[in-house]
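Sequence in, structure out. Go.
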Amino acid sequence: MEEKKPIIEVRDVAKVYGKNKALDGVKLDIYPGEFVILVGPSGAGKSTLVRLIIREEKPDSGKIRVAGRDITRLAPRELPYYRRNIGIVFQDYKLLPTRSVWENIAYALEVSDVSDEDIQRRIPRVLSAVNLSGKEKAYPDQLSGGEAQRVSIARALVNLPKILIADEPTGNLDPQASREVADILEKINCQGTTVLLATHNKDLVDRMRKRVVVMKQGRIVSDQNQGRYTC
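Output:
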């Protein structure tokens, strides 16, 4: 039987900002289809690790492989293509305020040169997946925070990524909206997408009971299946 290989491999990664050691010899394997929750106090290194995985920054030392490719060696011209093949969700939604829900999602496909026919086929499916059917013509300022975040998730999913990375996606949401976002992430994961969620939301982590990786002072200090928030 062939051994399962990690879809994300972090090997001895270090990152320093001035005198602050943000990451210190981090090692982490995430396997296809896993749901991994990254937790830790402010300054623990969670967001730094996320930025390195999406290649907003490069590590000072160590390697990161995604789907078998060393992303620390990607040329600048390769970065847009790489990021189109992973879904990314941020705390602040990053929606285009002058575009409708449909247009915000379509934009992610247009920059990938997806045909108009394919755009018309994909968007209704992804809106249904995030429980936003009927909101196609709404603009960001007409949406609740939870709805805006679900549009952000839909936009991240529309390119059919194998990996979805969510950095504090419930940070600006009330408990009910947070639960809705978490339920959608779980549904996405059940359909085969690997999910990496960085969060401070203790109630969410304790309720979901997924693999929990705890970071403190730039290091991984705990890694448990069906873990709880222990920071």
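Check: Strands lie at 8-17, 20-30, 35-39, 61-66, 69-70, 86-89, 163-167, 194-198, 211-216, 219-224. Residues 1-85+161-231 form a domain with the Rossmann fold fold (CATH 3.40.50.300).
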